[in-house]
Amino acid sequence: MKDVIRKLYGLFDKREKRKLGFILVMMLFAAFFEVLGIGLIVPFISVATKPNLIQDNSVLSYLYETLQFTSTTAFLICSVVLLLAVFVIKNVYILWYQHRQYKVILDQQVKLSQSLFRTYLTKPYVFHLQRNTAVLLRNINVEVPKVFQGVILSALQLIAEIVVMICIFSLLLAIEPIATLIVSGLMAACVALFFALFNKKIGNRGREQQNINREMIKWTNQGLGASKEVKVSGKEHFFVEAYRKHSVRNANNTRYMKVLDHVPRLYIETLLVTLVLVMLLVIMLQKTGVEGMMSTMALFSLAAFRLMPSINRIVGLVTTIKYNIPAFSVVYEDLSVVSGRASRRRGSGRQMSAPPSSYRVEPLKRSIELSNVSFRYPEQAEVALSDISLSIPAGKSAAIIGESGSGKSTLVDIMLGLLEPEQGRVIVDGVSLNYRMDEWRSQIGYIPQFIYLTDDTIRANVAFGVAENDIDDAKVWHCLEQAQLKSYVASLPDALETEVGERGVRLSGGQRQRIGIARALYHNPSVLFMDEATSALDNETEQEVMNAVEALKGDKTIIIIAHRLSTIAGCDIVYVMNKGKLVDVQIKSGKAEEQPRPLAVAGSPS
């Protein structure tokens, strides 16, 4: 538990830790107001039942004379007003304190969920190949709120309730020590019995709920994401049934926890009523006077009235924390341990020392070269690429072809900087790619086989990832013209503001691919990658898309991954791959060689 508290505290930066300290100080003042409100009840009832106490008590007598009261009635009225004022001030202060507490915790929740999202987005490509998207979605949108609202906020509320309880019990102990000790002992034993019965079950339910949330997100993602295939194949029932099974488990789990939420209230209510009656019996056996017994019983009744929801909340908060602790383990793992591993994994994109500034990667001027590159995916026995060496001159178009599984997409992922070679290097204009990864990526455009279009306008989809106010419409139109889509978009009633629908469902396949080309050109890259970008298109549409690409030759270096010969007809160089090896090179001039000569790169940094 100490380790968990240390890790939770570590989620806050120095500034946020100061705010937490301020919250704890505010908590002590809130406890003081709670005790003050209850403590004033005893003297008020004593004076109300025995007015001559005003003269007998030195403090009350001094107040009576100093404030020049003319009668005990006036003094009592003033006491009532004062008591009400204390309760009003107490409640207003507690409301303000709660507001500050929620603000600090929920602001930090926003920061952590943003940090976790950023962590996932900046993870190496290999990380995303190994993790299910449903798990990542669950962690960001479900587990992080559980950590802050179910663990940290609950822990602060738990501390506040315990402080109030200790203060109230201290007051009761000073007035009726024997009865208070008896009641405290019985209450502690009963609460311990409750946790002994339910503690382990609560933790197990929390871990089970994580799996349920993951499966529910996974099946909804798969069913809705492949809605066309689901409808055509008539598999609606399969996906609905798979979702239903986990939804039923979720309902059962939720029902168990909701019922358990009510158990403490009923349990504590019965317990406190029993204990108040026990206290009454103890006080009566002590033969306390009627006036003293009335004020004492009023105090204990008010204390019980205040303690009942406190003890109920304490039990409920401990249950909530126990239930949500598994969420903290998952979030902490992904923020800390996985981040640490990333720098040691293959394909991690680890930070490198920068070479001299003269090696800066600028728009491609000479060539892209791979020197003896080999790669194996984690936990895979076979190598995906074996000793690949090739060179692509600037301004030329090169094709990488081969059967499915030949390694061509893996090769391009390495050239894109998504994967790091196990052996060998990628060299751009004589500079090792590891040294200038960010600059290199700013110079490349990527067109995948399946273009991801957001449910937004054509304008936003072309300028993908650019804030709306920063989009350059002239540049968008220019890119659409280069992609041979300008006339079509201009003919639409809303032009650039036309909504494309989710995943671009309102556009044809060719139009989606050409928007993908326009998107890849928006940042004016010097190198354009096409990863089987036309394989899903018919011959006529493919030719239209390739015509748009052909017009870019000379201005851009174009690298095309394909398995159809028609796609690469205009390429200057063709590299043929088979089972992770480069088996043939075909140059447009007609020269061919079975194996490329090893590349010797002079002047590249080691």
Profile the largest sheet. 7 strands, mixed
Q: Ranges with pLDDT <50 over ≥5 residues?
A: 337-361, 590-606
Helix content estimate: 55-70%
Mean residue pLDDT: 75
Which structural traits does this protein have?
ABC transporter transmembrane region fold, 606 residues, 19 helices, alpha/beta, disordered C terminus, Rossmann fold, four-stranded antiparallel beta sheet
Characterization of this structure:
By secondary structure, the chain is an alpha/beta fold. The chain has two domains: 2-342, ABC transporter transmembrane region fold (Up-down Bundle); 361-593, 3-Layer(aba) Sandwich (Rossmann fold). The protein has helices at residues 2-9, 14-39, 41-49, 53-56, 58-66, 72-121, 125-130, 133-175, 177-225, 227-233, 236-285, 290-342, 408-416, 437-441, 458-462, 473-482, 486-491, 509-521, 539-550; strands at 367-375, 385-393, 397-402, 423-428, 431-432, 444-447, 527-531, 557-562, 573-578, 581-587, 592-593. The strands form two sheets. The chain has a seven-stranded mixed sheet, sandwiched between helices. A four-stranded antiparallel sheet has the order 2-1-4-5, with helices on one face. A hairpin with a 4-residue loop joins strand 10 and strand 11 (592-593). Helix 2 (14-39) packs parallel to helix 8, helix 3 runs antiparallel to helix 6 (72-121) and helix 9 runs antiparallel to helix 11 (236-285). The chain is elongated. The chain starts with a helix and ends in a 13-residue tail after the last strand. Residues 337-361 and 590-606 have low confidence and may be disordered.
